[in-house]
Specification:
With 146 residues, the chain is α+β, with helices and mostly antiparallel strands. It has two domains: 69 residues, no CATH class; 59 residues, no CATH class. Strands 5, 6, 7, 8 and 9 form a five-stranded mixed β-sheet that branches. Strands 1-2-3-4 form a four-stranded antiparallel β-sheet, with no helix packed on it. The radius of gyration is 31 Å and the shape is rod-shaped.
């Protein structure tokens, strides 16, 4: 015989058999008592209310955590030093990648200093083995939160 057991808010259990017989057990070790479904109606509504409140609270928590994550500053890692492409050997700035490696940008030394002060730029001890250069009139793209 198959049955479903529902733990009620007061600690008792409501048991529904496959044949549709409703029983109530006051405590797990007690014998179940066949009961009138109408007598259990308020207990079931209280259980439904409680579960709805728990789901609403969970949804609020998820929403707050998601908003918090979106506001958290992204970290950038330096992958290359960028030079001007004339023969001056002057450093323009750095090629950086975001923390989930989905975006790369070239930033100026000034921007790198600002990000470093905010704790948002990490200088990797091992940079990529490629040469990166820019023209003197290069315009830096803004770093986005994406």
């Amino acid at each position: 015989m198959s049955e479903r057991t529902y733990k009620l808010l007061d600690g008792s259990e409501l048991i529904c058999s496959e044949e549709g017989i409703l029983s109530h057990r006051l405590e797990p070790d007690f014998t179940e008592i066949t009961t009138d479904p109408n007598a259990e109606y308020m207990n079931l509504l209280a259980l439904v209310d409680s579960l709805q409140q728990q789901l609403a609270e969970r949804d609020r928590t998820i929403e707050l955590l998601t908003k918090d994550q979106a506001l958290k500053p992204k970290k950038w890692t330096v992958v290359n030093t960028v030079y001007f492409n004339d023969d001056s050997n002057q450093i323009y700035g750095y090629k950086v990648k975001n923390e989930d490696n989905t975006m790369r940008r070239i930033i100026s030394s000034k921007t790198a200093n600002e990000l470093t002060l905010k704790g948002e730029l990490i200088f990797s001890p091992r940079q990529e083995l490629s040469f990166v250069s820019v023209d003197r009139d290069y315009i830096e793209k803004a770093l986005s939160r994406e």
